[in-house]
Specification:
Length: 383
């Protein structure tokens, strides 16, 4: 999709700021309106711009942003040349490049400790050749081969460093995502037979493959017959789709973050060692709720806040003021969310100067007909 502005107009509309790190961060926590796309980026040099994105890659004001893309634009308004993406802590998360309006060359994703998470190449806007995935320690996880129409598994290693797939054959058993283990047979570089995803010994889903083709899948449940689905849930590739920022979609409103000096203690609370598992765990809990299922038929985003106290127990689950006004008919979702969060078990509490502290979290549930997306973020220690 072609963006609807050009670099020349962008330079006139905005005052330059010296560097990425000096984008202003406001202190208000109330939702703010976004009148136009011009409010969602800043010029930081003669030919470079920083675009501000929320967690699902929609443009927002800088004070609301989760990600910042430092890039260049062509005169026609397309990304061009190299780019870098940072989080609010100014930690480098992604790098890549564009040429002739398309993704081209080396793309990388990084862990917050600076080690490479994923590395591979695009050619003419398509994944091509070998893509390497790594554990947070820097040890190899797997190697995937992308061709014109297919993806093949060449090699894989478990978390202990043992190679379990070699030359396209073996059993993959890798830590994938947060605290999720993915296990299945690889024959001739493609998935074969039964594949399972589990966390702490509990199955998340089970899928069947035949010569690399998805056959069926099931979510385990309390029902006599597990819930089935028609599309594979397995995503061997990394989570960030580099095409999302290219859409230049922006939100009508956004909620500013707290100033960074208050927002991040020494260690935020963690759930099963990696908080990215929370969204998937909540999804599995909420999908069994009749009330939540009814709500999913609507469209929109509903926002909650909750506190992880000094003992790691979830407390004070509430709708935000804005969501309470918009979705007053669904206030009963609060105890549903309370039960869902409580059923996940205790967290490791946040610590500040080595001492456990209560910590506020926010949770956004985005609804689009029958699908649901869950994202959450750290807000900061309680005063």
């Amino acid at each position: 999709m072609r963006p609807f502005f050009c670099l020349a107009g962008l330079l006139v509309l905005l005052l330059s700021v010296p560097s990425f790190g000096q984008i202003n961060v406001l202190t208000s926590e109330k939702p703010v309106k976004i009148e136009s796309i011009e409010e969602t980026y800043r010029v930081v040099g003669p030919d470079s711009v920083v675009f501000c994105y929320n967690y699902n890659w929609r443009l927002v004001k800088p004070e609301c942003a989760t990600y910042f893309r430092h890039t260049k634009l062509s005169e026609e308004g397309y990304f061009t040349g190299p780019f870098k993406e940072y989080n609010r802590q100014a930690e480098l998360l992604y790098t890549g490049a564009y040429a002739q309006k398309k993704k081209e060359g080396l793309f990388q994703e990084f862990y917050r400790n600076g080690k490479t998470k994923v590395a591979g190449h695009y050619k003419n806007d398509k994944l091509t050749g070998n893509w390497e995935l790594f554990y947070e320690t820097g040890e190899p996880k797997c190697v995937l081969l992308y061709t014109e129409n297919s993806v093949y598994i060449l090699s894989a290693w478990d978390q202990a460093g043992n190679q379990t797939v070699k030359n396209g054959n073996g059993t993959m058993n890798i830590l994938f995502g947060a605290n999720e283990y993915l296990q299945g047979l690889v024959q001739d570089s493609v998935m074969e037979g039964t594949w399972t995803s589990s966390t702490q010994g509990m199955p998340i889903f089970t899928e069947e493959f035949k010569k690399g083709e998805f056959v069926s899948g099931q979510f385990p449940g309390r029902q006599k017959k597990p819930n089935s689905y028609k599309n594979s849930q397995i995503r061997l590739f990394f989570q960030h789709d580099f095409s999302d920022p290219e859409k230049f979609e922006f939100m009508a409103t956004c909620t500013p973050n707290k100033p960074m000096r208050m927002a991040v203690p020494t260690n935020p609370p963690t759930y099963h060692q990696d908080n990215s598992w929370v969204a998937q765990a909540l999804f599995l809990k909420l999908k069994r709720s009749r009330l939540a299922t009814s709500f999913w038929q609507k469209r929109g985003q509903i926002n909650f806040t909750f506190v992880v106290n000094e003992k790691g127990v979830v407390k004070d689950v509430q709708l935000t003021e804005e969501s309470a006004k918009r979705f007053y008919l669904y206030l009963d979702l609060v105890p549903v969310m309370q039960d869902a969060l409580a059923s996940l078990g205790d967290w490791a509490p946040a610590t500040q100067k080595g001492q456990p502290v209560a910590y506020k979290m926010s949770l956004s549930v985005e609804l689009n007909e029958a699908t649901i997306g869950i994202q959450y973020r750290n807000e900061g220690p309680m005063d």
